[in-house]
Amino acid sequence: MFDSAMVLASTSSFVASVMLMPSGSAKVLDFGLAKDIPFATPGASDLSMSPTAPPLATAVAARFGDRDSAKANATINAGTAAGIVLAGMAALLDVGSWREVYGVFSLFGVGVTVWLWYAVPPGYTASEHGQRAGANLRRPGVFALCASAFLMGLASTANWTFGADILRSEFEFSSDRLAWVWLVVGAAGMSGSLTGMLTNRFGTARIHALSLLAIACGTLGLTATAFSPAYGFVAMGVFGAAYIVSSGALLIRGIELFSDRPELGLGIPFLSLAIGQSVGTPLFGATLKSTGSTAALGLFAAAACLAIFIRPGVASAPDVQEAVGRSPTP
Q1: pTM surpassing 0.85?
Q2: For an engineered disulfide with 9, which of 52, 194, 244, 307 has Cβ 3.0 to 4.6 Å away?
């Protein structure tokens, strides 16, 4: 029953926000999150998204056709960018205590949970091959999907985790200016809600390749901030839009590969992306320290470009049936 799964997942979002509340006052939008908030960790914030998305993908698949489900999932994915905009506005308003801000976000989570309880249709049960996890992972195209998502996640840490630090330390951006930077990132990222429409028209592989190229441009573009602060805003904005489009294209491709198991189609690439970010953060930090920002940004931009050439295909119905150990229906 995915209504129960949704409640459990939404509860994790509430818990993640509550875990951050003891941090007190902080300039969160320096992102430097753990730097300014000693109690906060990346794991606390990641806790909310990962378990929530797969039940939503299943709900979308139950309510929409193939073309409309791509649009719906992309719109849901773009909600991340809307959250960045809200947090940026809070930073610009110079909120005195972030406990109240996290409390508000927690209440949003509770409200959405109640809303989804009534909006999501009950009664979903796993398909008869749903327990064969190993067989599902052997489907054609899954390895390439995971590799592409891993590289995209790894490359994204240059901007997500270190972009603000580079702008602050090397280009003397103030906290207020950084808040505006994250507002630009979020506003640009909201354009990712169009990912489903773009993939329906131009194809998932093409849109994903272009978004990865844009991630590389946004990463390298940070170095141009030396000429004008405007380039920093442009680079981060390009990255914000490209990241949401790229992650949206990944989940759409995953659901295409797992048309019979949409929760796996979304969960597997997002897990691979998160692993890539976990690996990329210490790797970029070490590279930044040893080689400087220009070389580090160039290396991680190259990782995004490498992901362009890893293109998972879409498994045919006989391929899926063979992978899960079933005979084709006559």
Answers
A1: no
A2: 52
